[in-house]
Amino acid sequence: MSNILVVEDESIIRSALKRLLERHHYQVTEAESVTEASQHELAHFDLIITDLRLPGAPGTELIGMAGDVPVLIMTSYASMRSAVDAMKMGAVDYIAKPFDHEEMVRTVGRIVSSHRQQRVQHEGDAEYPAQAADHKPHSTLGDLVGSCDAMQRLYHRIRRVAPANITVLIHGESGTGKELAARAIHQHSPRHGQPMISVNCAAIPESLIESELFGHEKGAFTGATASRQGLVEAAEGGSLFLDEIGELPMEAQARLLRVIQESEVRRVGSVNSRIVDIRLIAATHRNLKKLVKEGRFREDLYYRLQVIEVTLPPLRDRGQDVVEIAEHLITKHARRLKFKGPVVLSKTVRDALIKYEWPGNVRELENAIQRSLILSEDGEINLDEMDLDQEDWKIPDTLVNRDDAVAHPATAASDNVDDLSLEDYFQHFVLEHQEGMSETELAQKLGVSRKCLWERRQRLGIPRPKKNSAAAPASSTQ
Known about the structure:
This protein is of the alpha/beta class. The chain is 43% helix and 13% strand. It contains 21 helices and 16 strands. The strands form five sheets. The protein has a five-stranded parallel β-sheet with strand order 2-1-3-4-5, with helices on both faces. A five-stranded parallel β-sheet has the order 9-10-13-8-14. A hairpin with a 2-residue loop joins strand 6 (140-141) and strand 7 (144-145).
């Protein structure tokens, strides 16, 4: 169980954050100030979460004291200046208060996982320095980009599979990068110096697919004025990648089965077969086993393809990878479009990229990046320029019942102290402190302007408390 130190002087926030993290199986230690935090052995923690502004000394003081332990800064002011300053001093990341539960858990999980990997790597380097390079986590493999656990398992499987001269079947939703995975397999195989021929089986008309794949002899059919080599023969010595193999007609499936079983191909209209040396890699987004049961895919071919299976995770399940891929695509397309100067993602966009469902996966993300590069004007990509479909946003569980909280702020604030997020936290904080603070002090603590505070009061139905006024003078009598 990972051990986290939370340093926060506001008891409401500290207790809510502790309950949130404990529900996600973290062990949490609390402190109200840098002085109290320094009484603990900081090196024993996996992460320190601290408020930027604390009594006595700022939370950034813990960065130097923590050594290799990552420090996540919370700031009510949510200003880029304070966040950037903290990052320059060595903070691993920052998060704005009031924070969203989903964002906090996701950020903590990413940092703790990364720190654990670095610690294991460091220990491995010390014990087995000659083997350390083989166990480092990788963020890329060929043209594949991503550092999440699912991608690490994918990279490991590709490295194990690539050297073997066997058929590979790649599964994955449309747009997940199945062809990139096929290229990675080819590039890490002994055939990397030979061509890899890619064929989209769904893009070739059914009447031409056999001729395209297996070739034809002169006069084999109307219009066949000369003999022609097929794509199977063109891949001689290299790899043949058949994308969307579930769309292959039954007749072509029978010919392909012969290629796999006997390593020979017979052109359309020919009586002679030719020996071919190819490595077959196939891909599909469909359930081939279901197609077999429906009689739309040959069972014997299915089992020939199914020797080794590789599955690509959808983008919506890859967490922080989506930001990593987006930055990779920005670099790629900014160079192609001859952009001058750096192009960066705004903080809002970085958060939105992770919350979006990405039904089109990496292909949709690449389209959004190209679109936003063309529309951006100041070197920063904003959410409006991404133009994402509003129907595909993930809705955090903590926000599902927000309407009830807005309708009954006092009840929500008292009943859900450990479920604070965004508006919930705002309501609770205002109701808790408005008797003892002025509007200016409340606004400063929340990191907003007085105007913003007033607008939120109006929207959430939280009236300002009435001040006790002096008793009205008694009316004089004549």
